[in-house]
Amino acid sequence: MTSTPTEHPTVHDEASAALLQRARAVTPGGVNSPVRAFRAVGGTPRFIASAKGPWLTDVDGNRYVDLICSWGPMILGHAHPDVLAAVQQAATQGFSFGTPSENEVALAEEIVSRVAPLEQVRLVNSGTEATMSALRLARGATGRSTVVKFAGCYHGHVDPLLAAAGSGVATFALPDSAGVPASAAHETIVLPYNDVAAVEAAFAEHGDEIACVITEASPGNMGVVPPAPGFTSALRRITKEHGALLISDEVMTGFRCSAAGWYGLEGEPEGGAPDLFTFGKVMGGGFPAAAFGGRADLLANLAPDGPVYQAGTLSGNPVATAAGLATLRGCTAEVYDRIGVVAHAIADGASAALTAHGVPHTVQWAGSMFSVFFREGAVRNYEDAKAQDTAAFGRFFHSMLDQGVHLPPSSYEAWFVSASHDDAAVEHVLAALPAAAAAAAGS
Ligand SMILES: *Cc1c(COP(=O)(O)O)cnc(C)c1O
Questions:
Q1: Among 298, 330, 362, where does a domain finish?
Q2: Rounded to an integer, what is the distance from CA 99 to the centroid of its chain?
Q3: Contact at 8 Å (CB) between 164 and 152?
Q4: Does residue 154 carry a catalytic annotation?
Q5: What distance in Å separates the CA atoms of residue 251 and residue 279, rounded to the nearest whole number?
Q6: Residue 276 vs residues 3, 328, 390: alpha-carbon distances, Å
Q7: Which atom of ligand 1 lies nearest, measured to the CA of 250?
């Protein structure tokens, strides 16, 4: 798909367009992460100048209610006073030491105290690093190399985890990205999500080669597709039977779906907790901080105690950990309650407006995390998610944007809300929905 910069002229976007042109000269596609480029919806991505609470202000002076929230991290809203104070305080003490510091310990303690099966975590800088390192640890601990993942689950841009192509049982995937060597993809088995029989069959054939199954705790990167009842427990049972590890990727769901992430909502799978967890997004409070962790005996395989190497110049950065700590401490029961209220108000409003205009859609939930699929019927896996009317979503997206609501620019993404979304912000979203639904309907 190509972008069509002149298609949506109703809002002033001259300054964003000029910045995009400047950016394209020095940065591929003009963006530092592909989905920001608006390729799925067309038009000019808005360059944001500032953000406060639930509002974004772009370089042309347009204001938007933010339903991206940095793809999850801004759970308390932008520039929350407590987080800002923590960041300012930390920064006055220096930016990075390359030696241990107290904030790292406090953030690790906060994370470990929230998710019962965690005994230890190691801090890293991004969700990608967390899954990459968890994978290396699983391979190092088991002495095996094959990895099972599910189509439609995103675990960052880690070579063996970018493979998402191939369907059916135990298909050895082709790489989905140029630059991923076949050798990396060949050690990845991609299976359809929510399909226990496919997992059984893959393990029947390759069980003694499989180091781990990695899954999004509750997938949010193909839209929100929660595990069917019993699916997580089946993964736990099958991996245990074959001596493989289970990695629960909570980078998106962690500390968002509940104080203890998806684990806290769904509870312990039958047969025991996942062996490893990964976190990111909310736990960094908008700064680069992420983590992976699990049982202490497993984490003991990591350097300096064990043979699995893993490191980072900026890992546990004192400013990032201060932001993460302040954010997690700010995630009170009231915050989770408010997020639930806001999410339901917006989802109900969207569904009512789309229904009124006859636009086929489905809303799916993981706790208070939700997404709107532009298709009818339950979405259980990536194949279902792909059967959407993306053109209708594009019209809906641009109508919302023109009316001052910034949705994620793709129909495969969750809509993220924050506790700072007050009644005025929610009303602003609700008021925009009927015209957007009409646009989606093509009327
Ligand atoms: C966002 C995400 C990642 C990657 O995190 P980055 O910080 O973007 O590298 C990994 N797994 C899941 C489930 C995610 O949502």
A1: 330
A2: 30
A3: yes
A4: yes
A5: 4
A6: 40, 20, 35
A7: 13
Our answer on whether the CB atom of 152 is closer than 6 Å to any ligand 1 atom is no
Cβ of residue 127 lying under 6 Å from some atom of ligand 1: yes
CB burial readout 328-347, b (16+ within 10 A) else e: bebbeeebbebbebbbebbb
Say yes or no: 47 and 95 in one domain. Answer: no
CATH code where residue 86 lies: 3.40.640.10
Nearest residue by C-alpha to atom 10 in ligand 1: 155
Question: Which residue from 71, 180, 94 is spatially nearest to 414, judged by alpha carbons?
Answer: 71
pTM attached to this predicted model? 0.95
Active site residue 82: no
The DSSP string of 20-66 is HHHHHHHSGGG-SSGGGG-TTT-SPPPPEEEEEBTEEEETTS-EEEE
Mutating to test ligand 1, I would choose from 70, 154, 412 the residue with most ligand atoms within 8 A of its C-beta, which is: 154
Q: Hey, what are 16's tokens?
A: 């964003």
Give the helix/strand (H/E) hosting 159. helix 159-162
Q: How far is the CA of 262 from the centre of ligand 1 (A)?
A: 15
Q: 12 C-alpha to center of ligand 1: Å?
A: 32
The CATH code of the domain that includes 39 is 3.90.1150.10
Same domain, 377 and 400: yes
Q: Last residue of some domain: 330, 357, 388?
A: 330
What is the 112 CA–ligand 1 centroid distance (Å)? 20
Ligand 1 pocket residue status of 218, Cβ below 6 Å: no
**From ligand 1's centre to the CA of 297, what distance in Å?**
26
Q: Is residue 4 part of a domain?
A: no
Q: Is the CB of 249 under 6 A from ligand 1?
A: yes
Instruction: Looking at the structure, tell me whether residues 149 and 260 fall in a common domain.
Output: yes
Examine the residue annotation and report whether 249 is marked as an active-site residue of this protein. yes
13 lines ligand 1 (CB under 6 A): no
The count of residues in the chain is 443
Q: Give me the tens of pLDDT residue by residue for the chain, a chain 443 residues long.
A: 334 444 555 679 999 999 999 999 999 999 999 889 998 899 999 999 999 999 999 999 999 999 999 999 999 999 999 999 999 999 999 999 999 999 999 999 999 999 999 999 999 999 999 999 999 999 999 999 999 999 999 999 888 888 763 323 233 445 678 888 888 888 999 999 999 999 999 999 999 999 999 999 999 999 999 999 999 999 999 999 999 999 999 999 999 999 999 999 999 999 999 999 999 999 999 999 999 999 999 999 999 999 999 999 999 999 999 999 999 999 999 999 999 999 999 999 999 999 999 999 999 999 999 999 999 999 999 999 999 999 999 999 999 999 999 999 999 999 999 999 999 999 999 999 999 999 999 96
Our count of domains for the chain comes to: 2
Catalytic residue from among 13, 58, 249, 275: 249
